[in-house]
Amino acid sequence: MTDVVAGTVHDRRGGVLRRISDTLFRHPHLLLALLLAPPLLWLGIVYLGSLLALLVQSFFSIDEFSGMVKREFTLSTYAELFNLANIDVILRSLLMAVAVTLAAALIAFPIAYYAARYARGRWKALFYLAVMLPLWSSYLVRVYAWKLILAKEGIITWLAGKLYLTWLLDAILAIPVIGGPSLSISYIGTFLVFLYVWLPYMILPTQAALERVPANLLEASADLGAMPRQTFWTVIFPLALPGLIAGSIFTFSLTLGDYIIPQIVGTSSYFLGQVVYTLQGTAGNIPLAAAFTVVPIVIMGIYLTIAKRMGAFDAL
Fold first, then answer.
1. What phi and psi, each to the nearest 5 degrees, are found at residue 227?
2. Which of 42, 67, 130, 298 is deepest in the core (most CB within 10 A)?
3. Long-range contacts formed by 294-301: CB under 8 A, 24+ apart
4. pLDDT at position 192
């Protein structure tokens, strides 16, 4: 009797599951919607929700007497962004992001080209290991390591002394604006650390794009009598450009929003990330901090629009 009852319950459960399975089989779109619903809801709530909250905060202002947030709609917080000091911060961050992105593209391209066209077997594995290895260590460890390397008593100063190139190092540090007392206290040092940390994000998409360049196009170009320089500018570079742009999205956005590197290496001049960190923490001016965070969002929105028109997302 017990076996009969148990068998009946099992049959009922199996029947319900079978009907659900049949329904999902007959309606694949319903199955796809059920599978995508949890991650989409999570992203929608966490990502878009936080962005919306940020945007709303940027339309509030701070009471100068009480220091409390006045939850009344105003554009005065955005007007503060146009103060000379704030424009200086925005331009400084933008120029650094552009410089790092261009330098990363120049360095990454020959590395990626070699890996895509010539490296095979063990050498290709070694390439991936060399590119990915820095990413396996702590971000802070790498930045502090560079702080020691660039310091006045660091290995670069020591090496310059051994090679009798101290005069060259002093000449570089004497360059107005970007120089300083040492590499670790200058824009040059900040630039070098940014470049080192984000370079892998430029190499990998570029290498992926170069690997998709059909070899028969290069052979056809050679058969038609094109010089290597012509083949590069008319075949290789246009097809690799989406990869470069895809990599630049990473290097540009990560440099624009980073606040740890300029805080550890560089001068006392603020970058966007540092300003946001200070305003929302020490100063407690959350509306102005939110307005500052909208700046890189707008810049990246413009940048991504241009990148999309150039087909960059095809290389992601």
1. -75, 155
2. 130
3. 294/54, 294/55, 294/58, 294/78, 295/81, 295/90, 296/93, 296/253, 296/256, 296/257, 296/272, 297/51, 299/94, 299/256, 300/249, 300/252, 300/253, 300/256
4. 94
Give per-residue burial for 65-75: e unless 16+ CB within 10 Å, then b. eeeeeeeeeee
Angstrom distance (rounded) from CA 297 to CA 78:
14
State residue 191's pLDDT score: 94
Among candidate residues 72, 89, 88, 66, the one with its CA nearest the CA of residue 285? 66
- Enumerate residues 6+ apart whose C-beta is below 8 A from 302: none
Residue 130 tokens, joined: 């060399």
In order, the DSSP letters of 130-161 are: HHHGGGGS-HHHHHHHHHHHHSTTSHHHHHHH
Per DSSP (E only), the strands in the chain are: 61-62, 69-70
Residue 194 has a pLDDT of 94
Looking at residue 1, its pLDDT comes to 47
Which amino acid makes up residue 69? V
pTM of the model: 0.81
pLDDT mean values, one per 10 residues, the chain (316 residues): 49 70 83 85 81 86 80 87 91 94 94 88 86 85 91 89 90 88 90 94 91 86 85 88 88 90 88 87 82 89 81 59
Listing DSSP states for 283-299 in one string gives S--HHHHHHHHHHHHHH
Q: How many CB atoms lie within 10 A of CB 271?
A: 25
Residue 61, strand partner residues: 70
Pair 154, 193: CB distance under 8 Å:
no
Per residue in 192-202, pLDDT (tens digit) is: 999 999 999 99
- By DSSP bridging, strand 69-70 and strand 61-62 are antiparallel
Q: Which residue has the tokens 């028969």?
A: 216
Strand partners, 70: 61
